[in-house]
Amino acid sequence: MKTNAEQEDTALSTRERVVRAASRLMQRQGYDGTGIKQIAQEAGATLGSVYHFFPGGKQELAVAAVHYGDVEFADILREVLYSDEDPAQAVVTCTQVLAEGLRASDWADGCPVTATALGSAGRAPDIQRAAADAFANWRDIVAQALHRAGIGEADARDLGWTVINTLEGAEFAAQAAQSDEPLRIAGEHLARLIGSYRAA
Amino acid sequence: MKTNAEQEDTALSTRERVVRAASRLMQRQGYDGTGIKQIAQEAGATLGSVYHFFPGGKQELAVAAVHYGDVEFADILREVLYSDEDPAQAVVTCTQVLAEGLRASDWADGCPVTATALGSAGRAPDIQRAAADAFANWRDIVAQALHRAGIGEADARDLGWTVINTLEGAEFAAQAAQSDEPLRIAGEHLARLIGSYRAA
DNA sequence: CCCCCTCTAGAACGAACGCTCTATCCAGGG
DNA sequence: CCCTGGATAGAGCGTTCGTTCTAGAGGGGG
Questions:
Q1: Nucleotide nearest to B56 (CA to C1')
Q2: What CA–CA distance (Å, rounded) separates A181 from A188?
Q3: Are A32 and A42 in contact (CB under 8 A)?
Q4: Which residues contact A124 (CB under 8 A, 6 or more apart)?
Q5: Burial track A73-97 (b if 16+ CB lie within 10 A, e otherwise)
Q6: What is the mean pLDDT of residues B126-151?
Q7: Is the pLDDT confidence value at A6 over 80?
Q8: Minimal Cβ distance to B176: which of A117, A158, A188
Q9: How far apart (Å, rounded) are the C-alpha atoms in residues A95 and A114?
């Protein structure tokens, strides 16, 4: 059961493989549902290596995993938002990309940040902070794209919040219902909402 | 450490106390982060009682906990939506209620359904189905309120999805950022979106 | 050649996990 | 009175958890 580990063995460093495995596993199973030994095995590493790179233990590793998911999705977000000069249409494309990812994984791969952070919020402030940073990062990316398209700075900032939050909520609903309908509808509504600000 | 258990000892049945404790604890700590012994202790019950009422073990208890959170929030939702004949304003009130609950618990009590279902989606289809049922239930309540206010049936159904999903996403963002701003903004945007349908 | 340091390797520990099991309590019918 | 069955009580099962620890592999600089 190290199907993916083999492929990654060649190019990536051990540390990178561990972080990727942690991010992917916690995305599916949450923080408490994922064991360090499972992460090590999936990454093709040993326990010693994991604790060598992350002496802070599971929490430090989870922070790195959340940060990895942060930049991973930020890259996708930037790419999609830059691909269309109409931000409303770009957001619709975004929902399609999310739906595609969900469907491709049999509705298993939701938001990597949410699943990791949700259960551990009270106990591990570091993880919660990393999740908040991710959301702030994504929101800024959306807000900049909207502002670039002619929407006022304050409105763009507020819309950044709601776009990210609605995508988040719709992705989880799609995951639970095993249907891309929530994401499709969210795309329509967000496009309509953005459009109502661009007209003004 | 059985502060709440004492208060509930008098009126509620053991089964009810166990379900409430499970719902509240899993809401904070997730499915895997909550132990059955902890639930029993918090409920003022013993392990034997828990397995007497839930022979299906932790999974069956989690399903009951999710269902409990379902009807609990459905009651609040109905009450708030019926309190104002303007559904846009009612949704804003809804965000305020959620923000109040979050703030009162020091940003610990988010959505009871999400936290329980997120980590256990792949392993426990029963829990996932209970979560999907909860979302569908809430969506119907919102859709009915919108339809009653004069919005077309199809539009009301679609808006039901997005209202619930945006509330969900905004609540988690508020929890992560420890600020009610995401919920406040979500309320404004949802009201604007609903208004754009009512005018048409 | 040896030393040193980064990294790998995995056995071992105490604690906690979900769950099973037996024993006991107690109200209601015979 | 005993008997029965739902409910309570908690010790104990095997397993897995996060973590620690010691040992070794491998490669440059002295």
A1: C19
A2: 11
A3: no
A4: A31, A59, A62
A5: beeebeebbeebeebbebbbebbee
A6: 97
A7: no
A8: A117
A9: 17
Q: What number of helices (H) and strands (E) belong to chain B?
A: 10, 0
Residue B144 carries which side chain, given as an amino acid letter?
Q
Alpha carbon distance B51, A89 (integer Å): 52
pLDDT in tens, B153-196: 999 999 999 999 999 999 999 999 999 999 999 999 999 999 99
In contact, A34 and A55? CB cutoff 8 Å: no
Averaged pLDDT score across all residues of chain A: 93
CA distances to A60, B4, B113, B137, B178 from B160, in Å = 39, 35, 17, 10, 26
Nearest-CA residue of chain A relative to B125?
Answer: A176
Measuring from the CA of residue A51 to each C1' atom, give the nucleotide at the shortest distance: D19
For chain B, say whether A91 makes contact (Cβ under 8 Å): no
Q: Does B76 touch chain A (CB under 8 A)?
A: no
SS3 (DSSP) at A123: coil
- CA-based radius of gyration for chain A: 18
Lowest average pLDDT, out of A113-122, B2-11, B74-83, B118-127, goes to B2-11
| Helical axes A87-104 vs A153-177, angle rounded to 10° | 20
SS3 per-residue string spanning B60-125: HHHHHHHHHHHHHHHHHHHHHHHHCCCHHHHHHHHHHHHHHHHHHCCCCCCCHHHHHHHCCCCCCH
Chain A neighbors of B108, CB-CB under 8 A:
121-122
User: What pLDDT does A10 receive?
Assistant: 53
Confidence at residue B8, expressed as pLDDT on a 0 to 100 scale: 42
CATH of domain A3-199: 1.10.357.10
- The domain ranges of chain A are 3-199
* Burial environment of residue B74 by CB neighbours within 10 A (0 to 12, 13 to 18, 19 or more): middle
